[in-house]
Amino acid sequence: MTPNIPDSPHKRLVIVGAGFAGLTLARQLAKRDDLQIVLLNKDNYHQFQPLFYQVAMAGLEPSSISFPLRKAFQSRKNVHIRVTDVKRVIPSRQVVVTDLGEIHYDYLAIATGADTNYFGMKEIEARALPMKSVSEALALRNRILQNFEDALTINSDEERTALLNVVVVGGGPTGVELAGTLAEMKKFILPKDYPELNFENMQVYLLEGMDQLLAAMSDESSEKSRRYLEDLGVKVMTGQVVTEFDGTCIKTKQGLKIRTHNLVWAAGVKASPLEGINPEVLGRGGRIKVDRYNRVEGYDTIFALGDVAMMVEEKYPNGHPQLAQPAMQQAKLLSKNIKRVLDGKKPEPFTYKDLGSMATVGRNRAVVDLPFLKFQGFLAWLTWMFVHLISIVGVKNRLLIFINWVWNYMTYDQSLRLIIKAKPPRIPKEPVPEEKVEAPAVVH
Amino acid sequence: MTPNIPDSPHKRLVIVGAGFAGLTLARQLAKRDDLQIVLLNKDNYHQFQPLFYQVAMAGLEPSSISFPLRKAFQSRKNVHIRVTDVKRVIPSRQVVVTDLGEIHYDYLAIATGADTNYFGMKEIEARALPMKSVSEALALRNRILQNFEDALTINSDEERTALLNVVVVGGGPTGVELAGTLAEMKKFILPKDYPELNFENMQVYLLEGMDQLLAAMSDESSEKSRRYLEDLGVKVMTGQVVTEFDGTCIKTKQGLKIRTHNLVWAAGVKASPLEGINPEVLGRGGRIKVDRYNRVEGYDTIFALGDVAMMVEEKYPNGHPQLAQPAMQQAKLLSKNIKRVLDGKKPEPFTYKDLGSMATVGRNRAVVDLPFLKFQGFLAWLTWMFVHLISIVGVKNRLLIFINWVWNYMTYDQSLRLIIKAKPPRIPKEPVPEEKVEAPAVVH
């Protein structure tokens, strides 16, 4: 195998990662015919992270929040997409090393994002359910649905409770949204689907190490989201740091024990920097330190942007929040700056414009913090839906998500409760059983 | 584990399989509170087989053609669904043996359907791509899409052609529909998605052992479908029986060789009867011989229906065609007969009413044989869509499929070109790496 990127008379920009940062950068630059763009990504699609929890909760299909990369760059002859893992960068030779071989770059943009942070707890990493990809969200969906099926087939009440209980760790937006949706499923859907089970035995827990939920938001939003969750029946426990999980029981540092088979881990992220970057420019959480032009400290031709980058501004001494907005804003300015440099002009420094943040808890319940306005409830919920709908890539995805939401709202139902088991891919050259093959006279 | 089916004062009907036959039977009887129904199925959903090929060709999502079984029987306390494999029946003790343990029946309905028939050719079974479940359809989609990615990364023209070529075996509706859709993808989508590849090197072949396509339909339909396919660029080859496939090349009995990594096997089906049924009542293709009341020969309390059953009528000396229509008609009458018997009345014998058959080749191109009318082309294509749309289970599925079809038609695009790799499920009790776990001071 070889990357097979054709030679070009133009400069080559290699972008690693097609999340919000990488995809935005590539799209903004795709029309520059005097730039060759190589976009490298693990999957052949972009994923819309803010809605992973709805995939996990059977409300949306993975495809509705995924967008094929090739569709975003159809007929662009200067854009070369390769689906591959990037192993490391060798700055001295200006190459990245991939599964397909080495690829030379003139400019490199690292947009590798962040992954689940287990804070070094291997026991939890081996058993908890993370939520940082559509694949992981699907796995969580299948696991929870399978648990209900399994709960029908055991006689021990204690074991059944452990199967049904779900402990969500992490009081950020993902944890809040997941716990709220689970509580709604328990209330509206599960008793109808499983009339044989008693769902009073099922508890949804939301555990958070700090003393409030949605710590990055306003106090009003933080308190309101807690009340919404408790109204829905979620057991919210703050100041609880989970440190042990043996597969059937979690324990916290504070001494709490909860029987459960299902630990959903949304407690934090750590950056996924590329190997080969000088470790001294890695900051807190593994983020790559960049200047206000997204240039990696100490490198002239390497940029980092999005969750993996740490750009310090006066208002953000620890870097920007690891969200879609900073990633997209950085990508937009970086694309402009690259165009400016190509045109012989001077680049401009970045300033983050905080557009606000929001989280949804359930039907008619959300919290919104805008720069000059905070509100909660039904209007916040409509705002949340509107903002997410217009942010998603692809008109068809928008339409399908809208229909799904209206449908689910009207019917109180998430209808995608399918445990679709993936068939392992067939390898053409796998060994054939020993039996002698005898051709039939006629196949039909 | 135990099946945990509660005792009931009423007779228990155990239905094995939730395809067209099993699901219809269960739905028709679900409202009889004086009957306990146990529905056993491998998956927790019903699959709409006629549209598998659209899932394989990235036109529809698996969820659009799947329907959660529990949703079909919400709040029905007399219906017990268990997701399990049924291994065999022990008629002398009136039990079926499942993964969950034994389940007693008063009446047993076997609706286990049919599976891909490789006619004993193990080499082909190990390497070909079948199309008898949504999982298999998804695997086919992922494989074909991955091939295009791989084709970008090799230098050998010969090998690239082998990756791109697709050989579809079997000239029935599935083979015809698949080959037609592939040819359209090659024409409308792939050159845009992969401007780096030359799709003149890709060939779609449709091979059939008999001397015509759609042999079960009229000669007009058969000839027209061939012309449609050839217009789209499909190489249709009849009278060719594939007997060998080493992973890179197929060979036919007639001496034809085609280089390809992709052999799609839609050449035939064989019934999946339950072990434990007297082998003497198994007819051609493994089908269970039943009388006109769907009673299995020699058993008073065991019924078989749908693809797995062979009911002989004067017009159908080899049993009914293995399609949705006979399955559903049999299920409807059997449900009526069971009600009649419960009410102390006499059952009625079955007569199959052929409502016609149809197949689609591509945009605006389909063939329809109704009992007194045959037509092809645009009107046939609309008819095909209408009939499939109203046949699918679930109003939301219908709506989503309709939107997808309209969208794909207008944009000449199948937009679900996502290779979503399934994450292996996490087992709660899997061993934990040896490293000592050190709890962090604060999780956040």
From TrEMBL, chains A, B:
Keywords: FAD, Flavoprotein, Membrane, NAD, Oxidoreductase, Transit peptide, Transmembrane, Transmembrane helix. Residues 355-410 form the External alternative NADH-ubiquinone oxidoreductase-like C-terminal domain. Residues 12-331 form the FAD/NAD(P)-binding domain. Pfam families: NDH2_C (PF22366), Pyr_redox_2 (PF07992). One of its GO terms (molecular function) is NADH dehydrogenase (quinone) (non-electrogenic) activity. Its EC number is 1.6.5.9. Gene3D superfamilies: 3.50.50.100. It comes from the Bacteria. It catalyses: a quinone + NADH + H(+) = a quinol + NAD(+). Belongs to the NADH dehydrogenase family. The chain crosses the membrane at residues 378-395. This is NADH:ubiquinone reductase (non-electrogenic). It is an enzyme of class 1 (oxidoreductase).
